[in-house]
Amino acid sequence: MGEKPSRNLALELARVTEAASLAAGRHMGRGDKEGGDRAAVDAMRLVLNSIDIDGVIVIGEGEKDHAPMLYNGERLGSGNGPQVDIAVDPIDGTRLLALGLGNSIATVALAERGSMFRPGPFVYMDKIAVGPGASGRVDLDAPVADNLKAVAKAKAADVDDLTVVILDRPRHEQLIGEVRRAGARIALITDGDVAGALMTAWPNSGIDMLVGIGGAPEGVLAACALKCMGGEIQARFRPRSSEEAELGRRQGYDPDRRLGIDDLVAGTDVFFAATGITDGQLLNGVKYSGTGATTHSLVMRSRSGTIREITSIHKWEKLMTFSQIDYDLRT
Fold it and tell me: What's the rounded Cα separation, in Å, for the pair 187 and 210?
């Protein structure tokens, strides 16, 4: 792995996710997923390039030939400073933003060069995630009822006190039935399983566990956040076809391997930031006014274990005199 960062880059990452949220938030409820994503990507790239890092995107939006925006392998930053891996999800919940629904956030993470896991050809993972109160108590291969009992015991609670977040997909019909039979409550989400994983570790979110199949890139981003927060995530690839599984094997992957948090991000100095775009259980969304906007962010660093909750007030009159991003669309 490369040179370890010496300064708290998480505070600089807050500017990155704030910029993405301010730009994308204008598209809330307009039904334009691509427009919102493009605005977030452009803002995120611009601010990342102003930071003194030598960064390479490991978790982005596909390879260069297939994604015009923040592609895997793209180099970002000034080129000076520590060599880092970068994971981005400019909008975790693009559909949520397009429909004006809650829990859409902008996220970015950094870690030492060579420390982030590359999912390769795999798109999906089977996951289980919990916060620090239940870290070390769950097992991806155990029945969900057993995991619920273990989490309840760790939290000195009953199973019917727990709430499990699950993506609302037909593939989870059996899983949802098992959780219901075990007696736990369920919070179904339509998108945004990075936010769902973060909720398991955030006090007063009301979420105790995330289970089910979600995006593989999102699993790495969630691992970065949970490493900072003291939580846990376990995952295993879920190939969509035998051809995908065989392609992974040819590239050196074991599709059957269970991945822990240190497999997904091996770095010891991990930085993560998230800013709300629409209101949610984790973060408040962007609030615009005639003179500016307010954003709500979480920024964290694994080395220190510090988690900061930041409310920022942005004033167009001053910001637009030097910003290259047109946050105030009337100008």
Answer: 10
C-alpha distances (whole Å) from 327 to each of 21, 48, 183 are 10, 17, 46
Residue whose C-alpha is closest to residue 233's, from 205, 199, 256: 199
Percent of the chain as helix, strand, coil, to the nearest 5: 35, 25, 40
Q: Which helix (H) or strand (E) holds 84?
A: strand 83-92
Closest C-alpha among 227, 289, 297, 238 to residue 261: 227
Q: What is the pLDDT of residue 64?
A: 47
pLDDT of residue 323: 75
**Sequence-distant contacts of 37-41: CB under 8 A, at least 24 apart:** 37/69, 37/90, 37/91, 37/94, 38/69, 40/90, 40/91, 40/106, 40/277, 41/69, 41/70, 41/90
Query: What Cα–Cα distance (Å) separates residue 177 from each residue in 124, 166, 171, 192?
Result: 21, 12, 12, 21
* Cα–Cα dist 293/316, whole Å: 8
Q: Which among 112, 77, 104, 99 has a CA at the least distance from the CA of 23?
A: 104
Across the chain, what does the average pLDDT equal? 92
Q: What is the pLDDT of residues 19-38, one digit of tens each?
A: 999 999 999 999 999 999 99
Whether pTM > 0.90 for this model: the answer is: yes
Question: Which 8-state DSSP code applies to residue 81?
Answer: S
